[in-house]
Amino acid sequence: MEHNFEVTVYNVLGEQVLVKSLTADKSLDVSYLNSGIYFIKFKDVDAAFNFVKH
After folding, report:
1. What average pLDDT does the segment 28-44 reach?
2. Are 42 and 7 in contact (CB under 8 A)?
């Protein structure tokens, strides 16, 4: 059974730049985003993670 994860990505201004539903075996394509710091939030998970796009 595949489990889907809803992922939302925000820029440093708090603007939503991406919403995607993924399965555990897929990666999140952020290649089109500008360089900078982003925050990623998984629906129903009480935590946020950041990443730097070069």
Report:
1. 94
2. yes
HSE, side-chain direction, 13 A CA sphere, residue 15 = 4
Contact 8, 17 (CB under 8 A): no
The two structure tokens encoding residue 29:
């394509």
Instruction: Find tokens 């708090």 and name the residue.
Output: 14
Q: Nearest CA to 30 among 48, 18, 42, 47? A: 18
User: Per the structure block, which two tokens stand in for 32?
Assistant: 């089109």
CA 21 to chain centre: 10
Entry pTM:
0.86
Q: Where are the domains of the chain?
A: 4-26+33-53
